[in-house]
Amino acid sequence: MGYEIDFMGVGEESKSGDAIALRFGNLYGSREEQTVVIIDGGFKSTGAELVNHIRSHYGTDVVDILINTHPDQDHINGLETVMNELVVKELWIHKPWDHNQGLASKFKDGRMTDNSVSERLKQNLEKAWFLVKLAESKGIVIREPFTNLVDSTHSLKVLGPSVEYYESLVPDFDGMPKRVSAVDSLENLFEKASSAIKRFFATWGDDQIGDEGVTSARNNSSVITQLVIDGRRLLFTGDAGIGGLSLAADQVECCSSSAELRFIQIPHHGSKRNIGKTVLNRLVGEPVDEGISRGITAIASTAKAGEPKHPRKAVMNAFTHRGVNAIATRGGNICHHHDAPVRDGWNSLNPEPYHYEYDEAV
After folding, report:
1. What are the boundaries of each domain within the chain?
2. Alpha-carbon span 146 to 152, nearest angstrom
3. Which of 30, 107, 124, 336 has its CA 20 to 30 A from that of 346?
4. Is it the case that residue 187 has pLDDT exceeding 70?
5. Can you name the residues that pair with 24 across neighbouring β-strands?
6. Taking residues 254-263, what's their average pLDDT?
7. Which residue ranges does the record assign to the Metallo-beta-lactamase domain (predicted)?
8. Among the listed residues 324, 295, 313, 288, the one whose alpha carbon sits nearest the alpha carbon of residue 204
């Protein structure tokens, strides 16, 4: 049993996004012995690239599972093309407009009703609503990806969010009426203020990330999935922040599988606001001595000109001094694989070096 994980190069300029194609099973055998999955579709133009990649490298027009981690444009916009050009069996997507019970009471506007909140969510998340309608018209099975949802092989499992956690986040989604989330406000203020560049000096093993990072409610609603193949654990995190990742870590720690972590997606393109040292210790492990490797690969999906915002050097360092081979796509395609056929023209990549000095926006 093997796997191939392909991070598509999303973002020609500075705007990063996610589009991941993967397949697992007997990759030397027939299509019936493999499961093909897409996690997010990047921007609209990324959809055609995903379709071509699936056809040329996986040799199929059929996608078993299409997952939208959350409805941000850099994750969802390419999925329409995938659904129209390929045969999709299942769509895993959240339907926040169906989680509107009792929401009206959470807003200051007394004229709001649960039904009007649901309609507001459909309007604000128009692309997600459209994809659900498109899937229904094509007879595609739709599942909401909450904790413990598994695929037919039981190899792919959703670690988070739980229904309860997701519903706690919905009132703070962007565009909701008169209830401004402190989390969203802090993140927006941080992004606006991140303009001055400062030189940082790092010491091996010394984290320059904290546990106080915040991200938006919509990011924290990201689907976090786990793939277990041949005793190897692979984690896909979307744009989840510390809150969502911590709950996923709970699931990993109580998992009966003895699978060892071999791959983890660096959340939110390597943003400093999405990962903290405590949750990183739980998911990956404590810092190790220089030169020690845990045999884990971590990939951040970043735009070609995304730096210094994506990825943050402090985040890459935090993974590196935990014995992880950290890599950023920087607008290019990266394949991580195990027990898979060799691809002509694809070469090995060197991991990110440890950055003892770096410039970063503050």
Report:
1. 2-339+355-361
2. 16
3. 30
4. no
5. 3, 35
6. 89
7. 32-103
8. 288
